[in-house]
Amino acid sequence: xxxxxxxxxxxxxxxxxxxxxxxxxxxxxxxKRDHIAGNCFTELSEGINVHRYGAHIFxxxxxxxxxxxxxxxxxxxxxxxxxxxxxxxxxxxPFNMWTFYQLWGVRTPEEAKQKIESxxxxxxxxxxxxxxxxxxxxxxxxxxxxxxxxxxxMTDPKNLPKFIISRxxxxxxxxxxxxxxxxxxxxxxxxxxxxxxxxxxxxxxxxADFFSDRDYFESLSRKIVYTGSIDQFFxxxxxxxxxxxxxxxxxxxxxxxxxxxxVCNYTxxxxxxxxxxxxxxxxxxxxxxxxxxxxxxxxxxxxKIPYYPINDGINNSIYQQYxxxxxxxxxxIFGGRLADYKYYDMHQVIGSALSRISKEIDLF
Length: 364
Ligand code: FAD
Prior knowledge:
The protein is of the alpha/beta class and 364 residues long. It contains ten helices and 16 strands.
């Protein structure tokens, strides 16, 4: 008999398993995929660590979280500085003085501010387009936001609620570092090795879907840590939650350097993909070949991976009903992006696992 069955070998599951095991509990981790690490999974292909589920850059402002993850890997000094390609012309991201120079030829923050101010939407925004226009004006919106958003959400940004863009960081400095956090990098040797270390000495069963034999899996342990979809756990009794999904297509290219950067966003509407990743640049690779991945947004259906929750009014109200039930479930801890129905970066999931599992350990 195990003390804990942990459903999901992603960030929440693996960190929980480690903490509970270190506190003396016996854990079994199951995952329906054929690998550990959830969406952070990287696989070594032709000497390059490929981020199978999209670009993953670790960043945090929290020293405790940084110290925790550093116990399981060294990190390189990669700084995320994506480039945008709009109809063949390149722009720096996030929006900063380089972007403004590339757009308008302006050289000073004052000139850039005036440009944005003169183009801003000044009414009360009622949709995503107006919201973005009110924050950054029409040139930035039309060049760098509109087409990308349209592709991501597969609808005109006018049809999208304004809450999707609550913040659009604009920097009046020459600074292409996408994140503001103190700590940032890519684990040396890829993400999967972190999960191998987190799960060292713990029983792990892959290609094991909790719902394929729920009674059996529930009989294996006294308590459960559940990191799968919350609506499925409760048998969809309040309805289905909706998500956005992505399709990734990778190719090996017999050339040293395809795009000179790890991440390039395609912001025009006519290019069908949203990003091209060139994985070797995450780790400053010097191989003679390269691997690139095209990322395409797709409509989600149940057999596809749910990547991004759609936190609109309808889905949130369905989620709140499930959340209420989850708080009443005595022998189950829910956590991670699917059980909390929330987009989280990796450091946030680590933070939430550290805090929830520490409370659990205090109860022993
Ligand atoms: P997951 O990684 O999804 O793990 C959940 C696991 O549970 C999965 O392995 C799944 O197979 C398993 N599971 C689900 N249901 C069952 C079941 N019924 N039975 C058995 N197993 C089950 N974060 C960053 O910090 N930086 C980034 O740059 C970044 N980029 C991202 C890019 C993309 C395209 C995406 C989608 C996410 C990105 N993230 C990034 C977020 C990051 O992936 C998540 O924070 C992290 O993976 C969440 O961990 P988790 O444990 O909550 O979920």
